Each structure stands twice: as structure tokens, then as C-alpha cells.
Q: What sequence folds into this?
């Protein structure tokens, strides 16, 4: 059977032409490298991130204490203003609700999870949904496991 009869033999040019026609909306997003660069350039000043952390803890009805206007403590969570962002450390008797990829989300850096999973640290460099989510998950986890 010849390739013409089977409909095979489309080349790369044909596939590229089809994708240009079928997926023109992708151009509006730009190349992936530019998106990553935009995220890394969207770093927020550490003092503003710290204020956002405090507001978020309040919105979660989480009681916290302040130390030297640059550190917050709340049920096993410590947040400190650093040069690169807000450094958070989490510690609890029960395994935390995180996996390493949670601590490497956009806006977060230097994430580390202990081998037993009961402690972790991460730096928030840009305030966003990922930073809010990680704090909320921790607070919810601790409140559920408060007796342990």
C-alpha cells in the first residue's frame, strides 16, 4: 500500500502549519521562558510580604505574637523578614501536609522538608495564591491535629 493511500507521510512543516491555524491563542501567552522571568521579577519587598502574612493569619482567625516587628509566631509557625523575602519555618509533632514540590511553587524559594516530614522551611519572595495556600494548609493541619 502506498503512503498516499494510507494518508501517512505528513512532514514537520504540515504539522507546524496546522498548529499555527488551530492554536493561534497560544501566542497571546508568550514563550514559557518569558513567563518564568516575569514571575521571578515580580518579587515583592519583604516588609510588604510580611504584612500580607499577618493579614492572612488574621483572616484565618489564627492567633499570633509579634517579636521586634520583624518576626511572627503562631502555633509552630515562625515567620521572619529576611533580605530575599519572608522566611517561614513550620514545625509540628505530626507529619506536615506538604511534599517538596509544594515548597517549590511560584513565588516560593529555598523550600526544605525534613526527612520525617514534621518540619519545613521556605522563603516567600512574591505574595500570591501559593504563599496563601501553604500557610492556610499548615494552619488547618495544626488545628485538626491539635491534640497530638
A:
Amino acid at each position: 500500500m502506498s503512503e498516499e493511500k494510507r494518508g501517512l507521510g505528513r512532514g514537520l512543516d504540515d504539522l507546524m502549519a496546522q498548529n499555527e491555524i488551530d492554536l493561534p491563542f497560544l501566542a497571546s501567552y508568550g514563550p514559557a521562558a518569558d513567563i518564568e522571568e516575569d514571575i521571578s521579577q515580580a518579587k515583592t519587598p519583604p516588609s510588604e510580604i510580611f504584612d500580607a502574612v499577618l493579614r492572612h493569619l488574621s483572616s484565618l482567625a489564627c492567633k499570633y505574637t509579634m517579636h521586634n516587628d520583624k518576626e511572627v509566631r503562631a502555633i509552630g509557625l515562625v515567620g521572619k523578614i529576611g533580605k530575599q523575602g519572608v522566611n517561614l519555618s513550620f514545625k509540628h509533632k505530626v507529619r506536615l501536609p506538604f511534599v517538596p514540590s509544594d515548597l517549590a511553587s511560584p513565588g516560593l524559594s529555598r523550600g526544605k522538608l525534613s526527612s520525617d516530614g514534621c518540619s519545613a522551611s521556605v522563603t516567600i519572595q512574591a505574595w500570591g495564591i501559593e504563599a496563601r495556600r501553604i500557610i492556610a494548609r499548615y494552619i488547618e493541619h495544626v488545628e485538626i491535629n491539635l491534640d497530638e
